[in-house]
Amino acid sequence: MSLPDFPSSTRFYQARMRKNGPFVGVAVWEGAPWVDGEELDRAPRLQALVRTETTARAVILMGVDTPVEIDGIWLQNVTHTTRANYEFLVEHARYSTAHAPDNPDAMPTKAIDFNKMEPIF
């Protein structure tokens, strides 16, 4: 599944959905609501796509140029990132969910248990 065509004013972030969780990609823009990747004919709002979602969530609370709460999701460790890094985070999460369910990226709402991880070398 390809990523949608974002407006030019879209800002990209990486954030955690919980303490010690993996980073997820977040795209924030102002525009008409999106449902299943299609734009609706409604009033514009500040909205965001989190991780691999295709339906945009409303941004409830903004910090100083960074989203803090997105329709029931509290974000932590929010930092600006590039579109390429956002795309990598989304595709890696999509791959992990489908092919590596034990990978921390497949379950971003759970904290990473470093004692259960395989050694990297």
Tell me what you see in this structure:
With about 120 residues, this protein is of the alpha+beta class. The protein has one domain. The protein is about 15% helix and about 35% strand. The chain has a seven-stranded antiparallel sheet. The protein has a two-stranded antiparallel sheet with strand order 3-4. β1 and β2 form a beta hairpin. The protein is globular, with a radius of gyration of 15 Å. The model has no long low-confidence stretch (mean pLDDT about 85).
Short description:
This protein has one helix at residues 83-99; strands at residues 11-16, 23-31, 34-35, 38-39, 45-50, 57-62, 67-70, 73-74, 76-80. With 121 residues, the chain is α+β, with helices and mostly antiparallel strands. It starts with 10 loop residues before the first strand and ends in a 22-residue tail after the last helix.
